[in-house]
Amino acid sequence: xxxxxxxxxxxxxxxxxxxxxxxxxxxxxxxxxxxxxxxxxxxxxxxxxxxxxxxxxxxxxxxxxxxxxxxxxxxxxxxxxxxxxxxxxxxxxxxxxxxxxxxxxxxxxxxxxxxxxxxxxxxxxxxxxxxxxxxxxxxxxxxxxxxxxxxxxxxxxxxxxxxxxxxxxxxxxxxxxxxxxxxxxxxxxxxxxxxxxxxxxxxxxxxxxxxxxxxxxxxxxxx
Length: 223
Prior knowledge:
Layout: H1 5-19, H2 22-42, H3 48-55, H4 59-62, H5 69-93, H6 98-115, H7 117-125, H8 141-153, H9 161-184, H10 190-211
């Protein structure tokens, strides 16, 4: 016979917490914030015990608000993803040329990873927790915003969806893999990494544009 009494009690407790309204939601946000702090301090494999300590709670108390460690991990990932997506978007908004639109988000992405390496590693290890906000084929805030920039800065790019998706997948892999390597082997400055990745991303984009017959220069002018 399968014993479910503990599981039922836990579910009942979570429903009771939810029924208390705003306070329950506030406590969930506090736990998510504490979890982010623990990940930053302890690394991407921080435990539920680490989360509880920083939230000032007993570990079991966390499960009054989250069904499992996996659910809490997902909520933490989504919180980080949404914040990072807004940060990357700001890196695109203020620029006018295609090259600026590539360099801007790369600058924001690399800078954030440099300042918060454990949070970056956590997001990458969780594959950015796919959401309904993301286009098919992309898995990061960086890739999502590069796709959005393509629609704005490169007329006709998304009329060739296979080429566009291929570029997004390629540049996403290039950027994140390069950042992970650089964090472990910092043999160039952050600024050098940003410029190298911007140049490589532009070359990937130009190759895709050439394949579909779109002429574009880094400053936005025609060839």
